[in-house]
Design goal:
four-stranded antiparallel beta sheet; alpha/beta; 12 strands; binds calcium ion; 234 residues; single chain; Rossmann fold; elongated; Arc Repressor Mutant, subunit A; five-stranded parallel beta sheet
């Protein structure tokens, strides 16, 4: 799968530039999605898998730097290529400090952008591929391997999907309604599947937490579930 299409997320509120970049990168064979704000980008990142993000610093609402910090705090390692304004050395330094992988100063040559993207994608390929991690829990979305403290855990397809969803919503409350809608794709309000979800969650929790003193999957009574780290078994 060496020529597997790479999915790029462009976050840029200048629509003309965003459109030009999307068209140019599309013509180069990339699969491109655009967002006009950091908030929209975060939403898209929670829904879909991207190989790289091109992120403008100057955005309405939260800046590119704030967005990067938020992602890195969540241990999201998506490669970030930051676009900074000319002469704004501060942005570059802060951007890289925050966890951006590279930056380009506007205006830039398209060929330069392509070169940077290639380098970043290559670096990721040789490193870890597409991985979701949370403390000592690790999920590889390509090989579909799940490990905790480096020990492999076998999950069913559905358990994998539920865990992926929890990982993408770490430290948030995930309700049964969310799981029914987004994982089970259950749109009918007349076929409650709460029991099905609970059975899967019980099995998943056993597999993930039984050999560890730190419990990651928490039940929030009457509400749903949460992937977080603060529960220590007695
Ligand atoms: Ca901008």
């Amino acid at each position: 799968m060496e020529n597997e299409q790479k999915h790029l997320l462009i976050v840029e509120d200048e629509t003309k530039l965003a459109k030009a970049l999307a068209e140019g990168l599309g013509a180069e064979g990339y699969w491109v999605t655009t967002a006009v704000s950091g908030e929209e980008a975060l939403f898209l990142l929670s829904r879909d898998i991207f190989n790289l993000m091109i992120l403008d610093v100057m955005l309405p609402g939260r800046s590119g730097i704030e967005i990067t910090k938020l992602l890195r705090d969540k241990n999201d390692k998506i490669p970030v290529l930051m676009l900074t304004a000319r002469d704004s050395i501060d942005d570059r330094v802060i951007g890289l400090d925050t966890g951006a992988d590279d930056y380009l100063t506007k205006p830039f040559a398209f060929a330069e952008l392509l070169a940077r993207i290639r380098v970043l994608l290559k670096r990721v390929n040789t490193e870890s591929g597409v991985k979701l991690t949370f403390t000592d829990l690790e999920m590889d979305l390509i090989t579909r391997e799940v490990r905790r403290s480096d020990k492999k855990i076998d999950l069913t397809l559905r358990e994998f999907e539920v865990l992926e969803y929890l990982l993408r919503h770490r430290n948030e409350v995930v309700s049964r309604e969310m799981l029914a809608r987004d994982v089970w794709k259950e749109t009918s309000r007349f076929s409650p599947i709460d029991n099905v979800i609970d059975v899967h969650m019980a099995r998943l929790r056993k597999k993930i937490d039984q050999n560890s003193s730190i419990q990651l999957i928490t039940t929030i009574r009457g509400v749903g579930f949460s992937l977080k780290e603060n529960m220590i078994k007695p």
